């Protein structure tokens, strides 16, 4: 009789970890379609400026267009900055894999993902994207050993 699988590892939520999470889970769209909202704000603000309606409000809308364009252009930088400014950044996380699921605990987060609650999953070069009804989570392979990776593959089949 084999004993139940149990894997425990701790890691720190640092810039490298957040960068990996972003690169493996977010798709960046740099096409014109990604800038549609920015273009719309800019055009509406410009039209309002040309009609002479409240210049301050019109310039504010043009400014919103500029900020929106910058948020698309610098999406990764903005996301990383927000993560590094969060109170979770720099904290240690305890990761536990067992027969029930994946448990992550830190000073600010206590998360438990049950294997049965994962409705969709995909493997990336550096980790796993685990989709539940509540959202999608990323699990990095850099905090896993070979046995735990094999265990996850078995559980996700």
TrEMBL record:
Protein name: YcxB family protein
Native organism: Shewanella hanedai (Alteromonas hanedai)
Keywords in alphabetical order: Membrane, Transmembrane, Transmembrane helix
YcxB-like C-terminal domain: residues covered: 97-155
Bilayer-spanning residue ranges: 38-67
């Amino acid at each position: 009789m084999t004993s139940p699988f149990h894997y425990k590892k701790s890691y720190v939520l640092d810039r490298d970890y957040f960068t990996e999470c972003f690169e493996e889970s977010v798709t960046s769209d740099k096409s014109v379609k990604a800038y549609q909202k920015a273009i719309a704000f800019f055009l509406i603000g410009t039209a309002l400026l040309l009609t002479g309606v409240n210049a301050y409000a019109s310039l504010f809308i043009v400014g919103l267009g500029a900020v929106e364009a910058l948020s698309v252009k610098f999406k990764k930088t903005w996301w990383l900055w927000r993560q590094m400014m969060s109170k979770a950044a720099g904290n240690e996380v305890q990761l536990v894999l067992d027969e029930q699921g994946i448990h992550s605990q830190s000073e600010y987060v206590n998360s438990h993902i049950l294997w049965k609650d994962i409705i969709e999953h995909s493997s990336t070069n550096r980790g796993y994207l685990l989709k539940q009804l509540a959202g999608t989570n990323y699990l990095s392979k850099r905090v896993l050993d070979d046995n735990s990776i094999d265990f996850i593959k078995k559980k996700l089949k």
